[in-house]
User: Fold these one by one.
Assistant:
Number 1:
Amino acid sequence: MSALAPLPTRRDEAWRYSDLDAAARTWPIDEPDRFVVAPGEQRAISLLQDAGPAETVIRDHRIEIGAGGTLSVHLLDVGGALGRVTFDVTLAEGAHFELKAALIGGGEQTIELVTTVTHAEPNATSAQTVRAIAAGKATTSYLGQIRVARGAQKTDAAQSFKAMLLDRTATANAKPELEIFADDVKCAHGASVGELDKAALFYMASRGLDPARARALMLQAFIAGLFDDMADEGERDRFDAIALAKLEALG
Amino acid sequence: MLVISDLRSEVDGKAILKGLSLTLNAGEVHAIMGPNGAGKSTLAYTLGGRPNYEPTGGSVDFLGQDLLEMAPHERAAAGLFLGFQYPVEIPGISNVQFLREALNSQRKARGEEPLSAADFLRLAREKAGLLGMDMDMLKRPVNVGFSGGEKKRAEMVQMGILDPKLAILDETDSGLDIDALKTVGAGINSIMRAPDKAVLLITHYQRLLDYVQPDFVHILADGRIVKSGGPELALALEREGYAEVIAA
Ligand SMILES: Nc1ncnc2c1ncn2[C@@H]1O[C@H](COP(=O)(O)OP(=O)(O)O)[C@@H](O)[C@H]1O
Ligand SMILES: [Mg+2]
């Protein structure tokens, strides 16, 4: 997706659930952020996307992780009319990629995460944990593609996606996709979409919690732990606080 | 304290309570007994304000307020406690966090100062001790992984912490072995036996009533109170069964 790339259409798999009008408002987009994790290096990055409600945000990342290297990414994606974050990650031998992401949308927001993780060499591992919450007419989407190259034996790739819909008009999409050209490979993915447990909400109310607080507590529990292993405590507290504020604002 | 007059209610459009009247005064313990499907839990849920349990007639006065007009959390703040027949599991929220938030919401609604974390823990430890519950269990998520008996004990710990005026306890005795029954019975007496409090015990069996002695016993059948009496009524039920006693 370079600056010269044509505007995507619905037929483009990676854009099938997107807000193309919002994308058109900002097209052409910037070059992707590129970076390389050196062999054996351990890196962690945290990304916060909390743009204003009228903005269109499209942030693409191209990442290469060298042999034995590790990259841990924490993402909180809550802003923009369209808030789209993508990762295209290539793993060398024995490399590890870890992603923990919360996608939270209300109003008419489209919040999406698109990942392509290529296990190019043997013994690489990847783990993606994504939690999405959609209220109002919002759409949250997770498109996760795993590619295992020929000869990339002992690949271990895991994806877990859970979404919570707060209103009938809200939408969650999950699209896992596997392209495997090796035979000794472990790929696990799970996806589920649910609603807040009404029995639990009544139980909480019967103990005196008002409905908004009961809902915020349950949603907090739903994304609990995603950011617990962030190394920078101040940053972790900031992520938790922004997530909570967003949850309380979903109204 | 609680005056229920000709209460009617529907569950998912089906009439269950068909004109139920009952008065509880402060200082009293009432037991409601009745066969399966009589509407005992429906009565508890209707009084608690559970969605889908729709009052369709009659009135309920609770401490001078129109109970049916209040939201469930307002009923709690006014002093109503519902002990659930099937307590709900809430993954990811610890008992301590849940109960502290709940207590402080109630206090706020009543215009009282919130309890500090330290004061709350002291209170929780005291009530857990009363019910023979390990404090570690209160640090775990609400009811998650608790056995049936542990859930019922935990309900009573919650009741002790929230300190209601009126407790409606829906089959709190089910799932308890005889030792637990004794502890829970003693807990109910210690928390709720007071001149300004009242208890509505919903039960299937006489056995809890050996530990928490009711002043009045009512038989609920087909959505109405069909017979009322003293503790001897529960004993007669135990001996003769519902059909005999209702017919008598
Ligand atoms: N969610 C529901 N939808 C329809 N009917 C229900 C529902 N819950 C309970 N009932 C019916 O209401 C009646 C009373 O049930 P309940 O109040 O649970 O009785 P009890 O607690 O006395 O055993 C029963 O006939 C039961 O089948
Ligand atoms: Mg019942």
Note: Chain A has a mean pLDDT of 94.
Number 2:
Amino acid sequence: MARVTAGLTSSHIPALGAAIQTGTSNNDYWGPVFRGYDWVKEWIAKDENKPDVVVLVYNDHASAFDMNIIPTFAIGCAESFKPADEGWGPRPVPDVVGHPDLAWHIAQCLILEEFDMTIMNQMDVDHGCTVPLSMFFGEPDAWPCKVIPLPVNVVTYPPPSGNRCYKLGQAIKRAVESFPEDLKVQVWGTGGMSHQLQGPRAGLINKDFDLKFIKQLINDPETLRHMPHIEYLRDAGSEGIELVMWLIMRGALGPKVEELYRFYHIPASNTALGVLALEPAA
Amino acid sequence: MSDHKDIDVHSYLAEFDDIPGTRVFTAKRARKGYWLNQFAMSLMKAENRERFKADERAYLDEWDMTEAAKLAVLARDYNAMIDEGGNVYFLSKLFSTDGKSFQFAAGSMTGMTQEEYAEMMLKGGRSPDGVRSIKGGY
Ligand SMILES: [Fe+2]
């Protein structure tokens, strides 16, 4: 049987991709950020930790979805996904190879559990999906595992509640565990942490909020899942709402987790950046 | 047993107006900015970027946008674009076409210079103190 073996979080900001592309990931500004990923990079490269499939939860930033189609939760069921051209050409990274069997299986289970998923058989993936892959896997010729992209609407209001996201994660865990093949599946929650990219309040960062969020995500998701959107907006900035996606990852790990690794850094361009590696605990 | 929860969408939305210097991308804004955002999306295609760069006004005139939105684009006034219903992720296609970063665009909306904004971010960003709530002043 397949099982969820770990959950990771990562920022997915385009500036990280740009730093790799321009060879500046080692400079004074980006060096500390990239070194913060080293532990997970080494950990995930080991055979016993390497996932067969990653369910990669992210938000599309007006790349695959324009204003005509706004799915709250979508799931990529295609054989592969191309990096999107976001205005300066596609990121020069490998295509993302899907796992249609598992993706369709998860999609069916989720719909039967009353999550009305949008199924994507053709979709380009933007920095939200490909930057975390680069951060954890570096620059290989092909990504070392299959990826099921799972875009969440956190752009047009209302996005799903934290509670809904957590429940979706729980349902993903059940779906994975009913897939007959023996697969190691990781769920990644990306985006965040506190940041605001618009208006006179742009540049907002809230370290206290972020650290409390991490603490509760690990130890007290039952409280955290009920935090209303307005609190994210006031405290973590208008784009900090991306953090609801971390609750999908957390829900997929079960009630108790063990923290393997944590890294928190300010600033990465406009954002506070958080990396977590969690494992389900008995 | 019912899963129904009493959600008041009006107060849910009204709270968003209480956040200083922030325009949450509500349905109302999404509707107002529909064409502005679709215009921005069109810049994901290299041939459209070329046509736009060759004659910005002519390219904008192909879209059913308000004059205010067109002028905001021409002036690269991102606050004005957001007032016209633009969303920063859509508008990112515009500043990417200009070869500019998210930090450039975000900084341009704060009234600070690029240097001041970059400096603020290096020092840990803008504190949330006093800018969480207009009414509450906290
Ligand atoms: Fe994002």
Note: Chain A touches chain B through 46 residues (CB under 8 Å).
